[in-house]
Amino acid sequence: MTDISSAGSLPIATLTGDPVARVPINATIADVARAMVTCDVGAIVIGDDPRPSALVSERDIVRAVAAGRNPATTLVSEVASTKLVWCDAEASVDRVAARMMDRYIRHVLVERDGALVGIVSARDVLGVYAGFDS
């Protein structure tokens, strides 16, 4: 039987699987919302840089719409987060979970050798802990 402490020691890279969803820098909020539905994700990287500088989440879109911004004409680059939080692919699930809590964020970009290899969400992390008996 595996316990919760073993779950937390897993490398965060074990939670990355699907390719990172991306939209071009000139995408609108509406374009991003459609891409999120199509890719079934809650955050999308903006642009095609190997080490991106912007990410947009469902929360960013909700904030923009609540502020009265037109999703069809507002560029995602105007509302995307640029204070990205990264972790190394070998960081433990516990370490990344603590970082998410400390910074009150839901998504962390995962890198290996300086390149983006995935995005981990709070839901991904919670799934690790929920899948193990304590």
TrEMBL record:
Domain CBS: 80-134
Pfam families: CBS
Matches recorded under InterPro entries: CBS_dom (IPR000644), CBS_dom_sf (IPR046342), Diverse_CBS-Domain (IPR051257)
UniProt name for this protein: Histidine kinase
PROSITE patterns noted in UniProt: CBS
One GO MF term attached to the UniProt entry: kinase activity
Organism: Mycobacterium paraffinicum
Lineage: superkingdom: Bacteria
Keywords carried by this UniProt record: CBS domain, Kinase, Transferase
